[in-house]
């Protein structure tokens, strides 16, 4: 077994991730690989899934945190401070995860290189990371940054294969012309090198023009040799063009778009910053540019701002500022472009002088006479000078070509910012390499110069790029290059025609039939089967057909080169009528030339092949693309079959060759079968074949309609099958995701678990460990989805194991374990094996076995905290409302504590060790205070004390209503102290001395004698002190309010009840706490049983958080205000039934109760507005 190689990464602190890989290796199967084993690749794939999950969670956390900050009542200054703080934390986590992602990138690239290492051509070149900010650079953008790499097309293809072996085949891979992009957060772009173009050939110019339009390709990097520290002439000019191309999306965006799409802003600023780093724009010039665009920054400050934006440390929120930066960026690049262009002309001139000198020296060496002593030296000198001249000449040509291509591409981007194509049509004819690329985006016609191109006739023309326009999205640039190169080699006599045909046929509809059906079969919807023999036969037929044209042209006195040129033009343009037109021209001149016939073997299609081939022509053909686009009609005659011709989507009548007696029988047979396949019955089909003429046309039209209906039905069936396949693929992906979904080891209580101070090691601690619920839930969802798709009920079994021998399973994936109460870290491993079986038929492919292992630990730590109540026993009288305090020792820094108070069946949590106890009834109670850790939920310490509540002695008074004396109803019950009873006469004299009195009441009590209607009416005076109960006055059967008095003032908990409305009989309307007659503590108001107000009071003033709810929408909060002893500090309010939100602060100016400040001015709040802020009186 091979050991996983350390992943190259400069951040040493992240190398701990390697340990994760080795841990995962212990649970995965092993098989042979190339550079890494299957187990190692799977481990790296799991590392990426971990990174992806953590990044998703971090983005969610960051965005939610920003929303919280924006919604908070803080001042804007404080908001900006906290936003910057969160941005720094987010950036740090992004860089950590990007470092781990870089490890995955390295493994992927190394493995792909190893698999493609046997290749000998440029298409197998190693993938190498391109330039960019290094992963260990503090300026690295983290997960927001991508990795650009370069490699051959074959090596790039191995990347997809390696991804599949890593279990990452769910990643979206875009295989475009010139690039292979792994999209999403993986963000890896590989630039394909493909076949190297010979400098000066048309393919060389085409490739430069195509690459110049690719935003991911930096043309200037291809002009540098960083190992030698050298660069070609004009490199700096091309680099500026590269930066302008990269910034084009930002340059063509509006102010608002730049703010809403910070990625465009970041890319534009990044390119601008790189342009400034080139040093072609001085500080004085930069200062003028800034001043011209209304930017007050100094050059140093502007550069610093660009760096902050580039590193995503700052975001521009003001559209006007974004527009000023955009315009400054344009001016900076324009200034740099002018300077580098002037320098490029000087560099090209110097290179031309070097070329002239080398050629002059070469001429002298050739004229030297050899002697035996100098012959070998002269030969070597001549070879060196020839190589030097060639090297300089190619550099000149390449530099000019790249300068023209990049300039033209940028001019095109600026002219059509919304419709940028991969490639544009160049000017017809050859382009002048000495023309001025700076003055115009268009190239100028010229004659071929010996310094610019080889002395060959390569009239491939502009249709090559038109072909790129047609199939560039589905074909590698290397394939285009191969075709052009083969054509050029054929014209030069270096390649046989069959090699050309094989390359081109692979890209034409004839060859596309094979590739398309394979692609469909891969996705599970295999409608068509293809045969390699058909492809081979068509290659041979096409080769023979084109060879006959070349030979017949030459027999008609055409030169070999010209004949090859016509054949090459026909292949490239796809217009076989080029050959027929030339033949007609030769016949008009009296030449004898007969057109050869092309045989096309049947392909997999409803009508034997022609329909499918010509239909694909519209989108995929290199050769047929231009003809189908312009509606050219193709007539191809064959001795054994009839080939239908298509033009602009309309099937035209085929030309039947009845002149050939040898072919007539077979043609009729073919036609009869074709009509039968088109839904025509045997009798009518036979008659049409025999009679021909108008009847044959009528029947053929009917067959075409049937074909069209069949095609519509086929498309419908295909859509249904594709939709079904997508459901199947989606379900398979979910099953695969079970292997990667993030799982965690859950424990109750959460780790770390503190051991309370003074706990004996022998006591032990019991806790629960389990898989998190997401795994079980995901399995159940998959079970339901499989049943819905297949109609079969799968058998899903699960086996769970825990690494601890003492563990006892209590439920699926849940165990109880016992640990000694000794501070230590105890490793725990959980394993789940889930098997999906029981499916039959085509759905047996869904059978899976998924193994998941979680390795974690439970940490026990010694608690240092202790808590003690202020007394061992508390004595209260009923109605008392007193504070109970506790003292905490051994507190640790950084721990957020909470305090839980338990009395009877109630439990309350406070933030401070103070509890307000309400003694409501005579009883003996126990109070327990528990000190806890808010982060982990663990209990750290506790203390207990007893509470004795005694009866408050005093006079019990009952006051009846004024009802019938025979059946008096109790109205009030209460306890008094210092009670005195007086006659009316005595009462009048004492009225000024008593605290409270009751008039004209018929009272009964301990000190009252006589009947209720006794003529001797007493007046009772006393100080209420104790329980108080009041009933409704009408019936005396329903509570109105209950509570306690102390020394004549309300004290403790008071409850009021609703007695007025029959539907609300007995419901609570208010619960309020009092202290010495003033509101103190929590107060709640209710309407019909639901909460209306939840407020807090101190000394009869609002104090703390007060919440108010809508009186028509139960549970809909209307406002939430924070007070400090009656002074409003901050809060928010919703109006319009909770549909609009506002916030306010005490510092802001007041506009009045009924006014709101809106973006449209100051309006009344009873008028609908969209966004506003209100300040309360």
UniProtKB/TrEMBL annotation:
Ranges of Basic and acidic residues composition bias in the record: 134-147, 381-401
Source domain of life: Bacteria
Polar residues bias locations: 428-442
Location of the region described as Disordered in the Swiss-Prot/TrEMBL record: 134-154, 359-446
Keywords, sorted A to Z: Coiled coil
Coiled-coil region(s): 700-727
Name this protein carries in UniProt: Uncharacterized protein
